Fold this protein.
Amino acid sequence: MKVPPLDLKAQFEGIREDVQQRVEEVFQSQGFILGPLAQELETQIAALCEVKHGIGVASGSDALLLSLMALGIGEGDAVITTPFSFFSTVSAITRLGAEAIFVDIDPVTCNLNPDLLNNITQPNVRAILPVHLYGQLANMEDINRWAWERDIDVVEDAAQAIGASRNGRPAGNWGTLSAFSFYPTKNLGGAGDGGMIVTDDDDLAEKLRSLRDHGARQRYYHDEVGINSRLDALQAAVLLSKLPHLESWNQKRREIADQYREALQDLPIELPVEEEGNHHIYHQFVIRTDRRDELKAFLDEKGIFSAIFYPVPLHLQNCFEFLGYHEGDLLEAEKAVKEVLALPIFPELGEERFGMVVDAVREFFLESRS
Ligand SMILES: Cc1ncc(COP(=O)(O)O)c(C=O)c1O
């Protein structure tokens, strides 16, 4: 038996009828773009985040891009972000002609370290874009305080954190705008690409509804140049079927994380730390070890999934060379990329597969290679 990264087939068995019924509804209506199911999903995701508006878009990457577009960010502006994230956190900034300024991560949580924000002196910073990496919120109290003092907008990259919270306040509730992804492997994943922006700001919500539809508030009358990035009704149908299960699925991930911690605590590895006040939803369960590549090869041999999120820090990606960063500039992120390893975590993992992962990791450190 192998241990996969996810078991979406098993997940589907539990929701099959509901999904099929809603998908049938979409085909009956033959309305495939936005529409009542997408609106329902927008309402429900906004409620989950305790904000007024949800704007369904075509992906998490577009949710970030459109958020920055709505704030009017472009050439001559700078946006602060983390070097340790998925690519589109930064491409959203540079695509608009703005400059990305990287702030190194906190080595414990791997999230942007707000203590380093005071080193930023550029006067053209318009926004800060923190990421809730692996499903744990960044230190939003400190980030927001720093931003408010300077009248800078905060855009949350909450792509990995739907249902997570910090001191009782949900992901998506902290930024001027917040971006979610419904990529199929996310804790709430669609049957294809999808994303959402949430906000409490009425004007920005209206602007975003226009920007996602070519900048037209009324069809064929364009006030601004937007893009085509609307949520499909079929995605909304699938996501509405899954949403009622999100809390229990996240809870199951939390239980598995606790079990991993217990089972691996005596090994020479760093286990993920849940910061006080954080309700982590373990989109990923990421350990750290300086023998990461050896461990990964060992698990691969046994058919046990593991993955490196992420192998290259964003400031050292070839395509961002023009930003002028070099090796040695952001040491914590550069160290993390050499040490992190995600182990399988998903609600349907089950005892047997969990046991296989634990046994293999223990064997690696205690018997075969130490
Ligand atoms: C942190 C982060 N930001 C942005 C994205 C982009 O989302 P999508 O793949 O839906 O475009 C992802 C997911 O892939 C992500 O993990």
Observations:
- The pocket of pyridoxal-5'-phosphate is lined by residues 59-61, 85-86, 88-89, 131, 157, 159-160, 181, 183, 193, 195 (CB under 6 Å).
- The chain has a mean pLDDT of 97.
